[in-house]
């Protein structure tokens, strides 16, 4: 589908006369226009448009992704239709794509790490926002990851998995062992009986579920509420 001419063009003499009364054409040179099929005055610009092959609407070129393989340098379908297509494709083929991605990470672990590192460096804001969205959606993973990270930084050793943390909460009936309140009234956090700052190890046998308030009150004291 051809784009409209980037310069001002006219299909009829009436259009040309009407336009010449508004804009001086002394310096403009009229030439046949291959795109519009009419008379084109180069140098007098107007925004190019294009008809989307999907929704059939005529839209500015700015609403089409650029594509150097096409004559006018843009995709055939508009951005809105393209996004809708990609969303539907991912919904229908998500499992297959995820399986292929997992297989590739397994076969080429080092290459995958390098690709991820480069992407994060080039897309810092997107990477941070992606992590924030993930942790908002999976708060339990965030709790476990933060504790594991702290243990690595301090050098105490040990690792607690998300499964272990969920089983520990279930064992205590999702109750804060200090104040006795339960989820969802409160939000449980992972507390180390012997704090990492005191040399405690980051393992599930050194963990207990406390609400945020009780965890903060306990601080770095060694108190076993179990």
Q: State the order of secondary-structure elements, H for helix, E for strand.
A: EHEEEEHHHHHEEH
Assign the CATH architecture of the domain at 140-218. Orthogonal Bundle
Q: Main sheet?
A: 3 strands, antiparallel
Give me the side-by-side strand order of the main sheet.
1-3-2
Q: Note the gap between the termini.
A: 71 Å
CATH topology of the domain at 140-218: DNA Binding (I), subunit A
Helix content: 40-55%
Level-1 CATH class name of the domain at 140-218? Mainly Alpha
Unreliable segments of 5+ consecutive residues? 1-10, 23-28, 34-39, 41-45
Instruction: Label the overall shape.
Output: elongated
Report Rg.
31 Å
Beta-strand content bin: 5-15%
> Given the structure, what is the number of helices?
7
Structural class of the helices, strands and pairings? alpha+beta
How confident overall, as mean pLDDT? Answer: 78
User: Would you count the extended β strands for me?
Assistant: 7
Would you kindly provide a written description of the structure presented here, covering whatever features stand out?
- The protein is of the alpha+beta class.
- The chain has a domain at 140-218: DNA Binding (I), subunit A (Orthogonal Bundle).
- 43% of the residues lie in helices and 13% in strands.
- The protein has seven helices and seven strands; from the N terminus they run βαββββαααααββα.
- Strands 1-3-2 form a three-stranded antiparallel sheet. Strands 4-5 form a two-stranded antiparallel sheet.
- Helix 2 (79-107) runs antiparallel to helix 3 and helix 4 packs across helix 5 (139-154).
- The longest helix is centred in the middle third of the chain and has 29 residues, at 79-107.
- It starts with 6 loop residues before the first strand and ends in an 8-residue tail after the last helix.
- Residues 1-10, 23-28, 34-39 and 41-45 have low confidence and may be disordered.
